[in-house]
Write a structure and sequence with these properties.
Blueprint: H1 2-11, H2 20-26, H3 31-59, H4 61-77, H5 85-102, H6 105-113, H7 116-119, H8 122-150, H9 152-171, H10 188-201, H11 205-232, H12 237-256, H13 258-264, H14 267-283, H15 290-318, H16 324-349, H17 355-380
Pfam family, one: MFS_1
Transmembrane segments: 5-23, 29-52, 64-81, 87-110, 122-144, 150-170, 205-225, 237-257, 269-286, 292-311, 323-347, 353-377
Organism: Ligilactobacillus faecis
Length: 381
């Protein structure tokens, strides 16, 4: 458990994740070119999510994590040649595959490492696991901009070092005593058949996935394009990095207390309340005031960590053991498809409409869809 938590920390220590758009813009990329690259990345995620889940359930979760870390390491190398656009596209393709292999696999490995008794308190363990990852992200967000202001080259060298450490830590994770073992008898055909059975039998799974995906997409868009929005409002890269570092740190604190909070306030009410508040905050983006945008970005990204871990807990409780990573990959696939659509929409409108207005309107629509989906889930529950 401790080794898995430590691995999760270094895997999420992505120094470039907040500032990469600013970096490419400083290297001559336009907002449209950056949005198209982001769109290409999310298309790749759509393509890779389901296959990566099947591969993970087939070859074993530890092997999938090691392969994912290797691809993420290779992706970082392309930042040393930002003028060669085709290499950035290839690297983002590899990054999409790497993240697809890691995402869902890590949390599945956590679930399988728990005893039957511990699984009853999975929300508690998932909160700690998520908090570690978010804290690492906070450190990466906070330090990334300051390091970049000193040297972009140093930023990417340190990023490569973090991925190398994550790979080495992953090799030390013991998978011998997992409750669910990896079996050679699992074929892709059988896994797909079991996935189909899951969605046919668990009628509430689809609306649960939908509310997870719509809400995650909205917050991800604000997280991805937030730095560019703040940069257009004349904030420098180190200040943007500091803001997102604080944002992630507060999110880690929030998710750490999610389990205790769920004992005080009913989980469904928490999801309803937090998503409704976030919808209103995104609508306030249209005011185009720096103070309001900062408040909205920080607040929404913090409370998202609470409702997301609750929804993830509900999904894990429904999931079938043999296709656990695959089910999560279906969720990630839906998110990637939505992000792809959003990225190309932003790319098409980015030169005509203010970015903050596009993001605000998109996220209001997405969260409204998430709330409707959650209502349908409750009707079927």
């Amino acid at each position: 458990m401790r080794k898995l938590l430590l691995y999760n920390g270094f895997s999420n220590l992505m120094l470039e994740i907040v500032v990469w758009m600013i970096y490419l813009k400083s290297q001559g990329w336009t907002i449209t070119q950056i949005a198209l690259l982001e769109g290409f990345f999310t298309i790749c995620q759509v393509i890779f999510e389901l296959p990566s889940g099947l591969i993970s359930d087939r070859i074993g979760h530890k092997k999938a994590l090691l392969l994912g870390e290797t691809l993420c390491f290779i992706y970082l190398l392309a930042y040393f040649v930002p003028k060669i656009h085709i290499l950035l596209y290839i690297s983002f393709l590899l990054f999409a595959l790497g993240l697809a292999l890691i995402s869902g696999t890590d949390i599945s490995l956590l679930y399988e490492s728990l005893s039957s008794k511990e699984k009853q308190n999975y929300l508690k363990y998932a909160s700690v696991f998520t908090a570690v990852g978010v804290l690492a992200t906070a450190l990466g967000n906070f330090s990334g901009g300051w390091i970049a202001q000193y040297s972009w080259t140093l930023l990417f060298i340190l990023g490569l070092s973090g991925r190398a450490i994550a790979f080495l830590l992953c090799t030390q994770i013991d998978t011998k005593n997992l409750i669910t073992t990896e079996e050679d008898s699992k074929t892709f055909k059988l896994l797909l058949a079991e996935l189909r059975t899951f969605f046919l039998r668990e009628k509430k799974a689809l609306p649960l996935l939908a509310t997870t995906c719509f809400s995650a997409t909205a917050v991800t868009i604000s997280y991805q394009y937030g730095p560019l929005i703040l940069e257009t409002l004349k904030l420098n890269v180190s200040l943007v990095s500091t803001i997102f570092g604080i944002l992630s740190f507060l999110g880690a604190i929030a998710v750490f207390f999610t389990y205790r909070l769920s004992k005080i306030i009913q989980e469904d009410l928490l999801v309803w309340s937090l998503q409704s508040i976030s919808l209103v905050l995104f609508a306030l983006f249209l005011e185009q005031k720096l103070s309001i945008i900062l408040l909205s970005l920080v607040s929404v990204n913090v409370v998202y960590e609470i409702w997301n871990v609750i929804l993830e807990n509900k999904l894990q409780a429904l999931a079938y053991a043999n296709v656990r990573a695959t089910i999560i990959s279906v969720s990630n696939l839906m998110i990637s498809a939505l992000l792809t659509t959003a990225s190309f929409l932003i790319g098409a409108l980015g030169e005509k409409i203010a970015l903050v207005n596009i993001v605000g309107c998109l996220n209001v629509f997405l969260l409204a869809s998430a709330l409707l989906s959650f209502y349908l889930y409750q009707k079927l529950a």
